[in-house]
Design brief:
Layout lengths: L2 E9 L8 E6 L2 H11 L8 E6 L31 H4 L3 E12 L5 E17 L6 E7 L7 H22 L14 H11 L4 H9 L3 H20 L15 E2 L1
Parallel strand pairs: 1-3, 2-7
Antiparallel strand pairs: 1-6, 2-5, 3-4, 4-5, 5-6
Amino acid sequence: MTTARLPLFPLNSVLFPGLVLPLNVFEQRYRALMRDLSALPEEEPRRFGVVAIRDGSEVAPTAPGLPEGARPEPGPASGFGPDPRKAFHAVGCVADAATIRERSDGTYEVLATGTTRFRLLSVDASGPYLTGEVEDIEEEQGEGAGALASGVVRAFRAYQKRLAGATERTLAGQSDLPGEPSVLSYLVAAAAMLDTPAKQRLLETPDTATRLARELKMLRTETAVIAKLPSLPAVDFTRRPTNPN
């Protein structure tokens, strides 16, 4: 496996390859990261690693009024304990920042896209922001990915219809699902209304076929559950909110 060192951007959510990630960057440690990425030559990719937080918060608890003992020391690992690696899930996603725009107050508006998965090997907190040694995870298709993809498309459409009915929303204008199995598997994983641990398990799934099989089972179960509910809060489950770091 190829290893590399990447800046880390921990979030209370999971990023999947191919999915867009908007960020509202205001903490000093992540401002420093965006300044360094912005200073790279035009032809170099502005990459960083997104890892889902297992234990901790993406925003350090430094609000006025907190007891002194509850305030972690400011720094790159603030809020993540003495061993940040234990605070993060072991598998993350590389993000490529297409747009980094600095606002007049020094905060940043960032638009990035997930590219490939990685396994986090170690975390370094010696700089202004966390960095990690990571190894690439290749995407294997697995056996029967094409046939499973067809089933997932049908199951996801049924899931959408049930969810739209429960929220009294319309499906008009929704785009076609991708035909490539791995792309489909990540899109469904991102769009389904699942908690972070469930999404993380899908990200960590070893191959596309296994991920699609798990999604097929999950979609059928969730569709049956939604059918028994009288109503659900109106949620646009195809859009990704901006993450405040």
